[in-house]
Amino acid sequence: MEDYHVAEYRYENDHELGLFAIYDGHLGDSVASYLKANLFDNILKEPLFWSDPQEAIKNAYSSTNKYILENTKQLGPGGSTAVTAIVVDGTDMWIANIGDSRAVVCERGTASQLTVDHEPHTTNERKRIEKQGGFVSTFPGDVPRVNGQLAVARAFGDQSLKAHLSSEPDVKHIKINSSIEFVILASDGLWKVMKNQEAVDLVKSTKDPQTAAKRLTSKALGRMSKDDISCIVIRFRC
């Protein structure tokens, strides 16, 4: 396991913030560990956070990635995907991601994917990678990879691929209302063996979010998922 997660509450500027994240590391866990300790702090230190959260999140992702790449002697050559959620006063949620960790919302019992899986073979990602001088190959193996090495097109770190990877997150704002029941954040070890609606159906009757998360990870393990499995369930009371 090279995953790390964050699930905590803070009070900042008279606001209650719920901070949730899954960091799925590769080639070691140093980058994911660094993200766990620092990414949310970097986001909240952004001067624009309270006026323009989307821009603040993008700026913090970029500056954090720059720091990681400049400090590979300490952090190593590896990298990490990320999916983060910031819930402000229980009424607004900002979801961001790079890579293939995913956020799925349950709204009136129906699953909707909130994030984009940044896979190298998709048209937009392949075009960007090739424009930057890289290539996408299924050799070795049968999974599309950037320069035949990494199976995601966006990530933190990865010094050897930095010219061909992006650290720009997709960011989405969700207004929390009575129709929003819960959100699942999970690394790809869950989503490789479970569809979005199936995951929602499995836990929608489970009121305790920690129990729900454990149920999802256990089901993925039972299906012999061969990748890291980390999961957080955020349940709302509206």
Automatic annotation (TrEMBL):
Domain of life: Eukaryota
Enzyme type, top EC level: hydrolase
SUPFAM superfamilies, per database record: PP2C-like
Required co-factors: Mg(2+); Mn(2+)
CDD domains listed in its UniProt record: PP2Cc
Residue intervals of the PPM-type phosphatase domain: 1-236
Entry keyword Transcription regulation: no
Enzyme Commission number: 3.1.3.16
Keywords: Hydrolase, Magnesium, Manganese, Metal-binding, Protein phosphatase
InterPro entries tied to this protein: PP2C, PPM-type-like_dom_sf, PPM-type_phosphatase-like_dom
Record field: catalytic activity: O-phospho-L-seryl-[protein] + H2O = L-seryl-[protein] + phosphate; O-phospho-L-threonyl-[protein] + H2O = L-threonyl-[protein] + phosphate
GO molecular function: metal ion binding; protein serine/threonine phosphatase activity
Gene3D superfamilies: PPM-type phosphatase domain
Coiled-coil stretches: none
PANTHER family associated with the record: PROTEIN PHOSPHATASE
Family: Belongs to the PP2C family.
Entry protein name: protein-serine/threonine phosphatase
